[in-house]
Write a structure and sequence with these properties.
With about 150 residues, the protein is mainly alpha-helical. The chain has a domain of about 100 residues. It has 7 helices and 3 strands. α1 crosses α7 and α4 runs antiparallel to α7. It is globular, with a radius of gyration of 14 Å.
Length: about 150
């Protein structure tokens, strides 16, 4: 899914503009770098990201995944997957892919995205350019649209 997003950032300008509201080369390069890092993080042979299933405190009460926002450096490389992430009646495979893109985009050295307390497709599409370029759900929804070829 991240690979489809990587190529769509460059080749699907209408899709890119719908989600990220940009045509500038610097933003395109930054988005592609982020999706490339997400793809590499999800490779089975990668050891730079630790996927765990034991999130601290109550971070799984309302979420499928969690990434600590601090420390904000390369030592922060953990993605916690919550029990609901694995519930086949709650999420389909493409939903899990979207969630993985969302969560890994939070990792500081990947993109250090935020949630801005904004979730869902329509809410993501309504964000300003400045927010959408650093919004985790926008990354997830864009990747899903690219994967589904929803141009």
């Amino acid at each position: 899914m991240a690979d489809a997003a990587y190529w769509a950032v460059e080749k699907q300008s209408n899709l890119r503009f719908r989600y990220f509201k940009t045509h500038t080369e610097g933003n395109i390069n930054a988005l592609q770098q982020a999706f490339h890092k997400i793809e590499k993080a999800c490779d089975l042979g990668s050891d730079n990201i630790v996927f765990r299933c034991d999130p601290p405190n109550h971070h799984c009460d309302k979420a499928a995944g969690y990434v600590p926002l601090y420390p904000a450096d390369e030592s922060n490389n953990q993605v916690f997957l919550c029990p609901s992430f694995f519930n086949k009646y709650h999420y389909h495979d493409v939903d899990r892919g979207r969630i993985l893109v969302h969560e890994t985009s939070h990792i500081p050295y990947i993109r250090h995205t935020e949630d801005y307390n904004t979730y869902g497709l329509l809410a993501s599409l309504a964000l300003s350019k400045e927010l959408s370029l650093y919004h985790a759900d926008t990354f997830g929804w864009f990747a899903l649209a690219a994967y589904n070829k929803d141009y």
